[in-house]
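Side project, low priority. Logging it here so it doesn't get lost.
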Amino acid sequence: MRLFACESCDQVVHFDNRQCVRCGHRLGFLPDDLKMHALEPADDAWQLTADPGRRVRFCANAGLDICNWLIPAEGEGEFCVACHYNRLVPNTNMQDGIERWRRISQAQRHLFYSLLRWRLSPPDRTEDPAGGLVFDFLEDEVQSDGNVVPAMTGHDEGVIAIRAAEADDLTREQARASMNEPYRTLLGHFRHEIGHFVWNKLVRDRDAFEGFRAVFGDERQDYGLALQDHYQNGAPPDWQLSFISTYATAHPWEDFAECFAHYLHIVDTLETARGFGIAIDPRGHEEMAAEVDFDPYRAASAEQLVSAWIPLSVAINAIQRSMGQPDSYPFVLSPPVVAKLEYLHRLIQARVAERRQEAA
């Protein structure tokens, strides 16, 4: 995520800010230009401080401080380009539900920032009734005897379900520990599940199986049996030689989704490092030097991303350990994994090129 500046006083502001701490201006993010804007009241709407003729209003979810995104004042609909995909949301009659939704929305907006940077706005259910994107944020079921049945996070033909309870740190950590995962976050869930959606649209629906199978393997193997085997027997002992995570070993669909999530992790974090001007130059270890002097969203290749990412992630992990915290990125990018990231890079950039031609 890049840094932004207040258009009124040039104070550094961040993607999730609602108000400038220096001048007090109300802030909002406009997906049309991917910028944070300082705002002035304008009757029943707002106008941009830097462009007073441009009138905007907040997403309807701003009322509960769920969302800080803007829509054109004369535009149709109540919700921003991220929130309008939501179908089931947490219970807003309870403060816990509101707090969960705020955390979920924060992760969702980070996901959509990346999609918008690549001009990959997904079709919704109006555009594609059978497979358009929709989000359900599901509550756990409490049975009559008090037993809690956790909601399931997953994807099914465009429907992405997120277990709302995982917005609570304790619940998410319990799930992470019980599943023996080194990393589990809301943003990770969003990025993984959108990977399944992307596979449907850019691989399956385009009959682009040959290139996919050459990198990830044959997805025609029975998915249910593959997952059953994974949960019963675990990953093979040498999984790190070819996979980014143990879950990626379960089935080619999961391998793709896991790698897609990591591709977004890498690109977004590299943009953050670039925004802060971070360079890695350990004295006496020149082979670990790296500087993010390019736009990660326009990288020439996955190799360019990985070359900058590995030194940066090593440094971040070392800082975490110095603070007594676990590694932020406890994963190994083996050559086969880098090849999978390269496949994803080409897939995304090809779609970006298509969208540019469509807009021309």
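Brief comment: The radius of gyration is 21 Å.
Revisit when time allows.
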